[in-house]
Amino acid sequence: MRRLLLSLLALLAAALPVAAHAERVRDLGAFQGVRSNQLTGYGIVVGLAGTGDDNLEYLTQAMRGVSGRMGVMLPPGVSPGLKNAAAVMITADLPAFAKPGQRIDVTVSTIGKAKSLRGGALILTPLYGADGQIYAMAQGNLAVGGLGISAKDGSQLTVNVPTVGRIAEGASVERAVATGFDSGDIVRYNLFAADFMTASRVRDAINRFVPGTAAIEDGVTLALRLPQGADRRATMMAAIEMIEVTPAETAARVIVNSRTGTVVINNSVRLSPAAISHGKLTVRIDENPIVSQPAPFSRGQTTVVPDSTISTEEKSAHVMMLKPGASLSKIVDALNMLGVSPSDLVAILEALKQAGALKAEMVVI
Q1: Do 300 and 346 share a domain, yes or no?
Q2: Phi/psi of residue 187, nearest 5 degrees
Q3: Residues 17 and 59 in one domain
Q4: What is the percentage of the chain residues whose pLDDT exceeds 90?
Q5: Range of the domain at 310
């Protein structure tokens, strides 16, 4: 069976043509269960140069627990000054198939009033998964890319973010996560984006490679019948991931960021026949008050006489005619000729959508 799988993989590489915009199956989705897992933990960073949390209650409690594990018991009622320590949250990603003894990177972030973690060291901290089990232990010296400086007069200088640091290979994996990919009759493959056409094309490509293997469950998931055993199943999964498929064309969509004025139009957007005219009217009011002085030896008073000048300016507007089915390049060329700004572009696209000429989904974020 293994020889057959290797032969099929060789035939696939030699016989299958490369489509114009083909993508590998591994770039369109992932096998269910083969993923990373998030880990979190609460710990203490020590060795700071007076930039810690000081007398925060939750930091004091944590330090009592740490010192208690080391055999040092703090007297009741004593609140130690902890300017050189900070309470932190530790986050990490546990890769799929990670085994005990392997090392992973961790990110350390302050949760209190600590000003900087520069020069600190993380005390041994357990990292928990979503099920409450310990999967790794973290400890080590922090690498902080930020810098924070403050003076006695209150002036401050901050470069990047000094309250977040990383420890390369700072955690040791203590428990493996079972993926279950080598057991069961069905292995499910999930697309990154729901699309029935893409799912159909992936199914057909897999079935041409190994007939009767793939079936569609919904717009995201395909059920694959693969041979039992980790070795044979992994070989088949590797071969399937290298199959090249032409995904379906993306849906027409216009993304508008209302805060920054950014507008992104994908290549699937089309326009029905439409005429666009865009111009700006500027009204300017200038106030030039005149001081009026009374005649000598008269009983008049000095007064201020208002003098206003109103002027208008209207920029010449061009009318652009868009033919049926105008593509992205035609839309961009037409709007560039009108000389519109990003905010004006949003107004034009919304007007085209209301007029029924824009054949796309407007997404405002």
Answers
A1: yes
A2: -115, 130
A3: no
A4: 16
A5: 253-364
φ/ψ (deg, to 5) at 192: -70, -30
Same domain for 91 and 51? yes
Burial of 293 per CB tally in 10 Å (0-12, 13-18, 19+): exposed
Annotate 58-80 with three-state secondary structure. HHHHHHHHHHHHCCCCCCCCCCC
Number of H helices, E strands in the chain: 7, 25
Looking at residue 128, its pLDDT comes to 93
Q: Are residues 163 and 57 in the same domain?
A: yes
- From 173, 203, 232, the end of a domain falls on 173
pLDDT band at 51 (very low <50, low <70, confident <90, very high): confident
Per-residue pLDDT, averaged over 26-38, amounts to 88
**Structure confidence by residue, pLDDT tens digits, 162-177:** 888 899 999 999 988 8
In the numeric block, the tokens 């924070």 are attached to: 148
For the question of whether the overall pTM of this predicted structure is more than 0.70, the answer is no
Q: pLDDT, tens digit, for every residue of 72-84?
A: 566 666 555 567 8
Alpha-carbon span 306 to 354, nearest angstrom: 45
Residues 224 and 168 in one domain: no
Cβ atoms of 118 and 146 within 8 Å: the answer is yes
